[in-house]
Specification:
2 domains, alpha/beta, 10 helices, elongated, 15 strands, Rossmann fold, seven-stranded parallel sheet
Length: about 250
């Protein structure tokens, strides 16, 4: 069998089963595990899947930069932002992540809401600059242009001085086994610090992020309080989160 044919079969397995197990794929294709692992590495370099221990998971289409992600699932993100905004209670201290879905959350925050928002996203801060009842605190650091957020040691140190009620997290990928993950190591560190400093962590997950994986884990699923997505997501995709006691909010 040609390498190209074998790779197509592996991608079909991934599409059908939502994962590729290297040992099972090697047996099914009558080749060595080393051959399968090499194929998976090459497919990962092409951005067609995400390598994990023992095999591969679907890669997230949300790995592009901020500008590219603005054109993905626009209606879904708007609905998610609206639903998430109604989870904020008056007087709360809220961490809001950067990202295109967070931008929608900001747009849908009620004008009569009084709360404090702490963010490392210049876009979120500017989006709330005309909101009459929201106090905005900016976390400094080096601007990570890919995601338009501040990052680095100064950002993490500032986060450690705060105890927020809730953190609205944006990530590239949400998966029952791989947890929450993203495409940049330092960005994952900042998100992890925000989660640790909040009473609750709620992830904003448009459908293309579900059941996918990215290179750097932020937190395991057990540390997640809630998930906001759209009602059109199939029940079988949401069931693993509900079984773990994670509150699923449908927009």
């Amino acid at each position: 069998m040609l390498t190209s044919q074998r790779k197509l079969i592996l991608l079909d397995m991934l599409k059908q089963d939502g994962k590729v197990i290297a040992t099972a794929a090697a047996a099914a294709l009558d080749v060595s595990e080393d051959t399968i692992r090499r194929d998976l590495r090459e497919l990962a370099r092409e951005g067609l899947l995400q390598r994990v221990h023992g095999g591969a998971l679907p890669a997230s289409p949300a790995m592009g930069d901020f500008a590219a992600r603005q054109h993905i699932a626009i209606d879904d993100k708007s609905a998610i932002g609206r639903a998430a905004a109604h989870l904020i209670q008056p007087g709360q201290v809220v961490f809001i992540d950067g990202g295109t879905t967070s931008a929608q959350l900001v747009q849908h925050m009620p004008q009569d809401l009084h709360a404090t928002v702490i963010t490392h996203s210049p876009s979120v801060a500017v989006g709330l600059s005309t909101h009459p009842g929201i106090d905005v605190i900016m976390l400094g650091g080096r601007l990570f242009k890919h995601s338009v957020v501040n990052m680095g040691a100064a950002t993490v140190e500032a986060i450690r001085q705060v105890r927020a009620d809730i953190y609205f997290m944006g990530v590239c990928s949400v998966h029952p086994q791989a947890g929450l993950s993203t495409g940049d190591y330092e960005e994952a560190c900042v998100k992890r610090a925000l989660s640790a400093a909040a009473g609750e962590t709620i992830v904003l997950a448009s459908p293309e992020k579900l059941a996918t994986a990215s290179p750097y884990q932020v937190i395991p699923l057990e540390e997640l309080s809630g998930l906001v997505t759209v009602a059109s997501v199939p029940d079988e995709l949401l069931e693993p989160y509900q079984q773990r006691g994670i509150a699923v909010h449908l927009a």
